[in-house]
Amino acid sequence: MHAPARRWLEGQGFAVKSEFVTPWGICDLVAVRLDQAKVEERSALEQKTRIGPLSRVVLLDSIPDVEEGTSVSRRRLQREFSDFWSSDELDRQLQVLISRKFVTCPRRDLFQRRNGWAPLHEKVIAIELKLSRVEEVFWQARNHVRIADESYIGLPYENAERLVASRRAEQFHDSGIGVVAVHQDWCRVLLPANTLASEVDAVLQMHCVEQFWGS
Fold first, then answer.
1. Buried (b) or exposed (e) across 154-163, using 16+ Cβ within 10 A?
2. Cα 118 to chain center, whole Å?
3. What CATH class has 37-113?
4. Which residue in 60, 69, 94, 127 has its CB near the most CB atoms, within 10 A?
């Protein structure tokens, strides 16, 4: 089932990764379509490498963007991240962001970020593939709404048809989880996904999209 689902996503202009690691487990397929204008904007800033681990993405998100005209002090960042990093480790993380050109220092111990290009993507799709075990795959797909604009389960065509014709389809619809019928030669959306924007964690989604930078 992976091959036709992957071809279906790639045919829509998505970059696709299999067995994608999320904070809560493995997702069979995660697909990202980057915004090319934002890609060019980031490239112009010479931000050639990825931001790094989730903790560093959280740190970057805690720093005001240069376009906002404000800064954050090292003292405030130290208070905010005291449960995670020592003072020395915070300095190391800040220096990594500075060296990778994501952060600048307008004055000593004051910091601004340079990622006016965020969000970098147009859309993120997550798909969990199963031959059956609908209840299990539903909850897996439900977790993925934290990173995906559209979260689907993919089932063999006959199983997918039975699901969307059953009473259980209401549970999927109400939760915003879509259903994709997977055939060896094609895929078809039988129930559209409808993730609420309020359910997407912007920082987790940024970390997810970062895995596609430079890939």
1. bbbbebbeeb
2. 12
3. mainly alpha
4. 127
